[in-house]
Design a protein that fits this description.
Layout lengths: L7 E5 L3 H12 L3 E5 L10 E5 L4 H4 L5 E4 L13 H6 L4 E5 L8 H9 L3 E6 L19 E3 L4 H24 L5 H8 L38
Parallel strand pairs: 1-2, 1-4, 2-3, 4-5, 5-6, 6-7
Length: about 220
């Protein structure tokens, strides 16, 4: 088990997804660092922000490294053997941006050597990942189908929908078919095929006047 409030996370790429990741990590009590070439304002939850030129010297502080940077000529193959060697031994590497930002063979080597404790990969290079890739067989690697950033943006709405559905479910009386049928039975009569029918299906008593069926009209607003 990992005690998150005692951990440091370094987010590489502080755009929309990186800012959301910062907010969520800080909510767990983590110390949040960020690296970005253009961002100058600290997003919610982040305690320090620096340029990529200082990335190599700061990597050793992080227990988790989350990559949310776009793929550009500057970031293509950015995480290679050199940067992985600068990471803290036993750290975790998470990529939710672009697979091309990572040299996959170097990541596999860092995982196999035990230098990295594990990896979470929402994106890979190549994509889709070949069936014979060693990443599929590694127990310390979690692979998801390129949906991580989408999930980050929709998480608040998803939580709100879940709360609404929970309140709705608590307010609805749930009955089994047997219980619902029992409610239709006259209390003092023996249940028969005739008297367990809903009222609107039963024939009227002899001599009773049948009430006209009301007509429901729906108004359609343009």
């Amino acid at each position: 088990m990992i005690d998150l409030p005692s951990q440091t996370v370094l987010i590489v790429g502080v755009g929309g997804a990186g800012s959301e990741a910062s907010k969520l990590c800080a909510a767990f009590g983590m110390r949040v660092l960020g690296a970005d070439p253009r961002a100058t304002e600290l997003p919610v939850g982040m305690t320090d922000l620096f340029t990529p030129e200082r990335l190599e010297e700061r990597l050793g502080e992080a227990d988790f490294v989350i990559v949310t940077t776009p793929e550009t000529p500057e970031t293509l193959g950015m995480f290679n053997a050199r940067l992985f060697s600068r990471m803290k031994r036993g750290a975790y590497f998470i990529n939710i941006s672009r697979g091309g930002c990572v040299v996959t063979e170097d990541l596999i080597a860092a995982l196999r050597s035990g230098h990295l404790a594990g990896a979470g990969l929402d994106v890979v290079d190549p994509e889709p990942l070949p069936p014979d890739s060693l990443l599929w067989e590694m127990p310390n690697v979690l692979i998801t189908p390129h949906v991580g950033i989408l999930f980050l943006h929709r998480l608040p709405k998803g939580i709100a929908v879940h709360k609404h559905l929970t309140r709705l479910a608590d307010s609805v009386r749930v009955q089994t078919p047997e219980a619902a049928l029992a409610d239709l039975r006259p209390p003092a009569e023996e249940a028969t095929a005739q008297n367990i029918q809903p009222n609107f299906l039963r024939p009227p008593p002899a001599g009773a006047r049948r009430r006209p069926t009301p007509i429901c009209r729906a108004r359609v607003h343009p």
